[in-house]
User: What shape does this take?
Amino acid sequence: MAVLFMSMSGEGRGHATRVRSLVEKLRDRHEIHLFAPGDAYQFLAAQYLNDPDVRLVEIPGLKFHYVRGKIHLLKSIVEGFRYKFSQLPPLVKSLKAEIEHYQPDLILTDFEPALPRAADLLKRPYLSLTHQHFLVSYDLSSLPLHLRFFARFTGLAVPLHYSTQKQTIVSSFFHAPFRPSWQDKAVSVGPMIRPEVREGAIRAGLLQPDSQPASNEEPFLLSYLRKQSRVDVISHLEKSSIPIKVYGLGAREPRGKITFHEVHPQRFVDDLLACHAVVSAAGNQLLGECMYLGKPVLALPETWHHEQLTNAHFLRNMKCGDFVTLERFRIQDLENFLPHIEEYRTQIYQTCLGRDGTEDTIQILEEHLQHSAPVKTTGSQVA
Assistant: This one.
């Protein structure tokens, strides 16, 4: 049994979901320690806070800064510098002590900067599992020019998180070739599907083409919106001709055909399995789960969230859904999407139904465990 350290970004739930897909496959054979900030910690605490077999530790982390429902880039950058100079140094010191005490056999991070720095101080190798590294490693020449520019610009922040990883694993719902300089340093895997989604899909028979879940409910759409989303999005969605279940904004009184639901992992998964299609923010994790289940998506990326805009463009290029920016969304965009749902579903069935990168990632991790016996470190060995 090996000792595994895993840390992750706390912004949103996608990072924690990727980690959870690994934990549930590895927990019976390895000792696992998780280091999670923000939303990631809240998501994982429901599963592991009192679990005797998985250790979960809350740490501080980076967050986007929002003003009136929109990402404020300048304030996000300022908050990033504040984190770097006030919170990061003591956190690195604390994680260095964790490594010295538990002597992990494998260190893995999902876009969290402190654990890699602690590993570097102790001259310990670590691996990276992210979606964000597509910004620097993928050939994005198929994207519009403005998104290629912003990918380059946003990609400048990626090596600031860390840059000395032994291997980079890029988890993504879309395919793109690696840039020449990354072909020997990175490997691409599919989206990491959490166990609830995987097991639910098997029970419902959703991984067979042309299958849809049996339900006594009339067809409905599932929507996940970030809590910072503008309120007037709801004023357009409530005019929908088909019922919509909205998660992410908390419980509220119904409006039109919209019902609002508190985020509950199992209920959300149940609705994801049963829904007709999805209207959602354009995070990689949810889009990956939708492709896995055969659920067409109308994506609503924020104008200044360039990673989500890139995801949305790939979704459209794959012909598995469409998108409109959150700020420009009107009910007509939804009504234009609805008649094409079966076309999108057919394309998903033919290209990416059931695609899950979890086993490929586990194989990579196990190979590193087999072929790299780490040197145990103590404080006296640190240069």
